[in-house]
Amino acid sequence: GLPPEAVLAGTTGLAELAALVADARLVVSGDTGVAHLATGYGTASVVLFGPVPAARWGPPADRPRHRVLGATRVVGPDRDSAGFVGVGTHPTLDAIEIDEVVAAVAEVERVSGAVAA
Fold it and tell me: Using CA atoms, how far apart are residues 53 and 116, in angstroms rounded to an integer?
């Protein structure tokens, strides 16, 4: 439902992406470079993990402005473990409910003061 000019996928360079993350009120992302940028810039975030748990690559647990959802243990040595082969969404990500993400966003907003004006 977003207007075309609001969709920046495929049109944003790395420096522009970093600036967007740095200036964002809150970032919701998978365990990707965007999530790491949010942690580095101190931008509030909700990060979705699977199959590798946040303890391995997530934001430090002592930073309440970052919330992690998803895998709590390593599912396997690689993406092909647990019957997952390359295309689609890993089952640990599929197990994250939308309500969990919305609740985590609300909690991070409350804790970090990242509420929209």
Answer: 30
